[in-house]
Automatic annotation (TrEMBL):
One of its GO terms (biological process) is asparagine metabolic process. Keywords: Hydrolase. It comes from the Bacteria. Residues 226-334 form the Asparaginase/glutaminase C-terminal domain. It comes from Novacetimonas maltaceti. This is L-asparaginase 2. The gene is ansZ.
Length: 337
């Protein structure tokens, strides 16, 4: 038996979600969110076999017990500060694993990747089935996340998402399926790597990361700019766009019809928003492909979201506006592939 001090040291921070939900019905994989109960970090780890837990030295922190639909940027900012403090307090720590509900996991990962500047891995992991379900996927996902968090190959790759034995970059991953176990995918370039058995295998590295910096955490704690998402559709009349502006939106992200088009009345409403000083970013409803800064958009003063999907684009625009970034700098961040 190896000495405990020689084992790779990981902190597991539990925030709630499906991976930490328990239902009295082992066949329940649908209603558990409303009728189940929450489990803390220690319960998640206890689901792993002794032989697996014996391979790691784990510190357990229960940060919250929330369904991920209740999470927002103020909570993620607090979580980012906790992660930052945990890593600073323990130079010998290999990395951090954050368990999180899958509904907003891609947003949480993207937010954390923007504001954390850490070489050591921060790995987000969730589950599609509750802990009480037949063939629950949480324990296997958690084991895989521990392996990635302690892998030297994961250093410097930014915040990672581990699910169904795949490793995804925070900037490219999306939840693609409501109930299937292979829900997390990176549509344009695929996963960074895989976990096969006990081996962590990275096929490539993150080419470039968007860095906002920790200053944004303090800014949004005092003044978080309102940024809304407008869903475009045929025959749209721009009523929602006008309503968001009237409610005080400083930014609008358009989930446009592909490849970045809106109905005529919506386009007119967006032009009116730009004239009022509202920052407008054109993204698309598609799961892959970039929304490019076409000549028409540039002439109208509308930014293009690049490969970011609407919910990610909203997070980036919110942080940029909180830091009073100029439009050219914001567009540069969106242009990073």
């Amino acid at each position: 038996m190896p000495d405990a001090a020689s084992l790779p040291f990981v902190t597991v921070i539990s925030t709630g979600g499906t991976i930490a939900r328990h239902s009295d019905n082992p066949c329940d994989t649908v209603d558990y969110a409303e009728i189940g109960r929450d489990l803390g970090a220690s319960h998640l780890l206890s689901a792993l076999p002794d032989v697996v837990r014996a391979r790691f030295r784990v510190r357990e922190i229960t940060f919250s017990q929330k369904d991920s639909s209740h999470m927002d940027m103020s909570i993620w900012a607090e979580l980012a500060r906790r992660i930052r403090d945990v890593l600073r307090e323990s130079p010998d720590m290999a990395g951090v694993v954050v368990t999180h509900g899958t509904t907003t996991l891609e947003e949480a990962a993207f937010f954390l990747d923007l504001v954390l500047d850490e070489e050591r891995p921060v790995v987000l992991v969730g589950a599609q089935r509750p802990a009480s379900a037949i063939s629950a996927d949480g324990p296997a996902n958690l084991h895989a996340a521990l392996l990635v968090a302690t892998s030297a190959q994961a250093r410097g790759q930014g915040v990672l998402v581990v699910s169904d034995n795949e490793i995804h970059a925070a900037g490219s991953v999306t939840k693609a399926s409501t109930y299937r176990l292979d829900t997390f995918r990176s549509p344009d370039f695929g996963p960074l790597g895989v976990i096969e058995g006990d081996a962590v295998c990275f096929a490539r590295q993150v080419a470039a990361r968007r860095r906002i910096g920790g200053d944004a955490l303090e800014r949004i704690a005092h003044d978080r700019p309102r940024v809304d998402i407008c869903y475009s559709h045929s025959g749209g009349d721009g009523t929602a766009i006008a309503a968001f502006c009237a409610a005080g939106a400083r930014g609008l992200v358009v989930a446009s019809m592909l490849p970045g088009m809106c109905a005529p009345a919506e386009s007119a409403a967006l032009d009116a928003a730009c004239a009022q000083g509202v920052a407008v970013v054109m993204s698309s409803q598609g799961s892959s492909g970039a929304t490019l800064a076409r000549q028409d958009l540039r002439q109208r003063g509308i930014m293009a979201a690049g490969r970011l999907r609407p919910r990610q684009a909203r997070i980036l625009l919110t942080l940029c506006l909180a830091l009073d970034m100029p439009a050219a700098r914001i567009q540069h961040l969106f242009d990073i592939p």
